[in-house]
Every structure is written in structure tokens, then in C-alpha cells.
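Before a colleague's protein record goes any further, I have to sign it off. My question to you is simply how this chain folds and whether the C-alpha cells agree. I do not need a full report, just your reasoning and any doubts. This is what I was given:
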Amino acid sequence: MAEAICRSRLGDRQWTLSSAGFFADHPLPPVPEVEALLRQRRLDTASLTSKRIDRSLVKRATSIYAMTEMHLTTLRKQFPKAGTRAHLVTEFSTIPEYRDRDVPDPMGGEAEDFEETFRILEDAVPQIIAHMDQLT
């Protein structure tokens, strides 16, 4: 979801975006609930597949944005060189109740749970892009 939202807001920026996680064993498309939500909002899902984060991806990244504090801690332990390049997504939230908190995982939930996660990510992405603009 986050990658699709970010791609849709890049404008003419020629950035390479990649989304990865710790538990992706092999490439899979988004789950049907995410696919439907993104299509409702006319966001491209064609290039979205799950993949596992690895050393080369971390090495190439200008910045890394984690969904949860656990992901951020694990990232920093497994890849110490990620250091200050790694951030919690909600560090950039303008919604006070979500600022610096985990992005809720909607998997197994209702449509409203997916909507909430989308809203949190949609809110944070402009500030993430502004952050990246300062770095590039």
C-alpha cells in the first residue's frame, strides 16, 4: 500500500522505490483487500510484489521507512549500517493519535481496518517525500 501511495505522489521525481519486509519468503501480489482498495483509488498495483529485505536493498537505500517499532528495531539489529537512514513511517504523520506509533496491520481484519491503514499512510507520504527531497 505504502509503495503505491508514494509512487502516485512522486510527480516528476525519478526515484527508485522498493517495498520489502522481514517475512516475505517469495514474491506475491497484494492481498485481494489491498488490491481492491488501491484500485478504488485508481492507484497502480501492477509492479507491487512482496519481497524480503536484504543487505543489498538496505545498502542502496537513501532512506528506509518502517511500519512498526519492531520492524525498525529488527532492521537496525540486522543491518546496523541502516542507522539514521531508518525511520518509523508515523514519525511523519500529521494525525496526532498516530504520530510515532505503529501502523496497524490490517491483515485478517475488516475493510475498515484496511481503510484506516491507507489513511495513515496517505497522511504520512507527503511528509516522507518532503523529507526525501531534503536528502536528494
